[in-house]
Write a structure and sequence with these properties.
The structure is a single chain. This protein has 150 residues and is of the alpha+beta class. The chain has 3 helices and 7 strands. A hairpin with a 4-residue loop joins strand 6 and strand 7. The protein starts with a helix and ends with a strand.
């Protein structure tokens, strides 16, 4: 094997190792957050879905507005269209724009605004709630967690 071939092989191996380490770090982080169990929302008695990166348990948020049904459906489908196995009828969900109440003065500084999805839960603009500290991975494809509202 030439020096060039050896270097190429080491680069490929190094890239594979980095990819493996990234996946391991993500899995470890999810387990540390208590997100190791997977399952459907109905099977575990959960009633809302939120993106994993916007899940802040026990922090109060306000419902800013509801989403149009077509927007909710589009957000609950695979990128490019099509249903994920966990959600056969995305039109059965209500979508909401929520904003965490973090304090921090005016001007929108320190605010986190995101989406939440729910079946059988009806919220109005201005309602305030919190996510419980218990959540599980609902859809890894859509990066959604399932949790309860308080």
């Amino acid at each position: 094997m030439t020096e060039r071939e050896q270097q190429d092989a080491e680069n490929v191996e190094s890239e594979e190792r980095r990819s493996f380490m990234k996946k391991g770090a993500l899995a470890t982080g999810a387990l540390a957050l208590g997100l190791g169990s997977a399952g459907s929302a109905s099977a575990q008695g959960r009633n809302v879905l939120v993106y994993t990166y916007d899940y802040h348990p026990n922090v109060q948020f306000r419902v800013v507005n509801s989403l149009e049904k077509s927007t909710t459906v589009r957000l609950l489908e695979k990128p490019g269209g099509g249903n994920v196995p966990e959600i056969s009828q995305p039109d059965n969900y209500n979508g909401y724009i929520i904003r965490y109440l973090l304090g921090g003065g005016g001007g929108g500084q320190g605010q986190i605004t995101t989406f939440m999805f729910a079946q059988g839960v009806s919220l109005s603009q201005g309602d305030t709630r919190q996510f419980s500290g218990d959540a599980s991975v609902f859809s890894s494809t859509l990066n959604l967690l399932s949790t309860n509202l308080r």
